[in-house]
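INPUT
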Amino acid sequence: MTPRRRAADGVVALLALGVWLLMPPVISLFVGPERLFGVPVLVVYLFGVWFAFILATMLLSRRLPRIRDDAPPRLPLPVESAGEPRAERPAESQGGRG
Amino acid sequence: MLSANVVLFTALAYVALLFLVAFVSDRRARHGWLGLVRSPVVYTLSISVYCTSWTFYGAVGSAARNGLEFATIYLGPTLVFVGWWFLLRKLVRIGRVHRASSIADLISSRYGKSTSLAVLVTIIAVIGTTPYIALQLKAVTTSFQVVASTTHTDLLGIAESDLDLRTGFWVAAGMAVFTILFGTRNIDANEHHHGVVAAIALEALVKLFALIAVGLYVVFAIGGGIGEVFALPTSDRVLGSEVFGARWVALTFLSATAIICLPRQFQITVVENADEEHLRTAGWLFPLYLFLTCLFTLPIAIIGLATMPPGANPDMFVLTLPMLNGQGALSLLVFIGGFSSATSMVIVASIALSIMVSNHIVMPIALRLPWLAPGVSGDVKSLLLTSRRISIVLILSLGFVYFLFSARSDALASIGLIAFAGVAQFLPCILGGLYWHSASKAGAFAGLLAGFVVWAYTLLLPSFEGGGALPASLFSEGPWGLGLLRPQALFGAEGMDPLVHALFWSLSLNAGLFVLISLVKEQNPLERLQSTLFVDVFRNPADRESRFLHRSAAIDDLFVLAQRVLGAERAYRLFRESARRQGLEEGLPRPSAEFIAQLEREFAGSIGAASARVMISQVVTGETISLDEMMRLVDETQQVIEYSQQLEQKSQQLQMTARQLREANDRLKQLDAQKDDFLSQVSHEVRTPMASIRSFSEILLEARDLEGEQAARFLSIIHDETLRLTRLLDEILDLSHLERGEVAWSLDLVDPERVLDRAVETCRGMAASAGARLTIGTRAGGARVMAHEDRLNQVFINLISNAIKHNSSRRPVITLSSGLVDGRYEVVVQDNGGGVPAAARERIFTKFSRAWTQSRPREGGAGLGLAISRAIARKMQGELELLPDGPAGVGARFRLSLPLAAAAEQPERRAGE
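OUTPUT
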């Protein structure tokens, strides 16, 4: 398993974890009068999970393979290049299907 | 308090700024200087068109009423963007490859470029979006009146009856102008509106900045710190409500769906996407934007509830809180922020809808009207632009009219979620279209229609309840008194939250019908082609299309068509570019299937896939049949591959069998030759003694006066020769018996050493007469083998007599030795003669070989001895072989080896003896 493929699998795992953490019954566990730094635990939990989620995505996204651009050549705009040589990368195309 | 003029002036100045930004960006993009506009950050900011005034003002209202529930609207999109690698990347790729100009175009293109599907999607999108536009108009109107109000009572929120509808009108008119100016300047190759995107991105920054500013002010200036805010009693009220139920799940799901299915989100995320790599940044930056947007929602709601006079509208807390505290500048900023969020939504939504209306409703009609018909004969490009401009005006007018009639009721308050649920109906056919090959047009159409009808009936209709237009009995007793069909308790499903109820029934019916009909109804060839191109988009680039779809057309017709759809200049550039790629120096390109497919995609970027197909079909000939064939080919390819693999296996097996047969044949031929040899050898061997017998008997017959002594000698010769003949025939019989395995010997436990001694004694006489010396080398001592004693003796004698007879040495010495090696008993008979010539080594064991005795034919026997000996040895599971040449002075060495009898057998055999 290549590191890049692992990153794609990591995204799936992260998503599953996110849904698990943010949906009842897990999130309901944090309902209560307890406070952290004066803020209800529920609020800290929700925003904390949310933020951690963003950070994890940022780190994971960097490890995902580069997106190979093989869309058909655009209309001849000066900045666009037509028909760049492109290499087939199996790991990536599989990620697309996963 | 701010005067209305100041507010108006600020708003106008802000709008002027937006125009300027859009204008400059558009100009720069035109000159190929895209720079900042094409950066991932701008892309991300423009996606935040998701946060409308419904977010800006409404989130706090929602928090004040339902606590944390507001967060679900932002958690769903967060989840979708975190998983961008799987869904959004594919969506954007497909959108780019197939030049999808709108969500309706994408769906129609996927399901065989269907016009009817595109129309249905467009209608649903218009119905779902118009009230949403009205909601924005209302928010701007209300906030304008609040911020410019002079009385304190207005801070409670403007009563619906006091709304000044003129503000709404001017906002709608201004947005129409902006959208027409920057949204329909031209029909871009990729539907990119750089000016609009730049303006939207700026607005995204403004609204986020305003929200954070007011949040910081409220928390730290009014509330006195985070801890203090949550210590307020209203905090418990806000957080006290139990929200983590079915509605929490449903709302999260719904918002995740909306970020994919909302026409304006599709427009920004997919159509306006300049580079797929931008998703990598948007994947975390957009969730971060949402996170920051929501950060202060709860504190503002708590403080608003705690400090505002009772009866104040929580939806306006964001604006009224700073106003109540005399923060004029801050309230103006908030107003501009709210204005931004409303206008950006209105602009993008009306662009997206106008593209859909012009491409999927106006174009198909124009193509079918006889007097416009050859949509081909008119200037399609200007028709498109005009129809888009008119659509924008119409859509905004529709929004304004909706606002006009509903502004005074509170029907708009819930319209945000209702619109979400409406566009959520697109989800099954989008997901199915992206990941399921068999998803068919019929299924998508039926599912969409059913979902839409159920949504309208269970969610949209009840939102008009109390407006007077509908009888109350419809809701309490159902239509015609049918209780099962009550809009909010369909099939008796009572007690559910109305939104969850509507979502459940509409989506389950939608998805159910979609799957069911897709399974039942066969796809047509074009649908199958498109489904392959969509589902396997990462494996099949769109130019694969031309391999399956063979068409031809006159290049002139195509050029005329292209000029009308794309405009003269773009058409020219496109044709030149293609000609150059085909290797043509000048003139028009060849109308290859590839080129036609590319042209159709270019058209699709402007007028939608369905219309593009209709237009291309008008000048193209000979398509359908070959498409049928090619599609069959696609399916058959897999089978062909399997068959060819099987064939290959079979042919390998056949080759192997043929080789074995050839080998067997060779062996048979060899045996046949051996048999012939054998026969001629036998005749030869028999003939020699027969000849002498005949000649001597003739002498005896003719010469009657022969002396008795001489006659006796002749008779003895005859006798000897007959003996020799008999011996020869015996040997031949013996050998053939041995070889055919017909001899039934009983193998007994034998001491081979004893047999060897006997054989040596037998040969002593023969050795003495030949002047040879027999020496005994090392001996094995005791050994037991399973053998036939006499036959074993025969082998030993044969070996020894051969060594004596064929020894060419002047002083012949024959050495016998035996031993036990690896569980076998071995006897080696060695002489000091010239050895066996290398060429004859293999032959000596064959019949009548007498290989090394050719020079002295009379000395040997029939040449069957070694063949018989070997046959005997093999019969006893042993082997007789000629050892490789030894050192000089050592002649031929023959070795007989026999397996030692198994230890267990010995006592048994002895007992048997």
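end of record. The longest strand of chain A covers residues 35-36.
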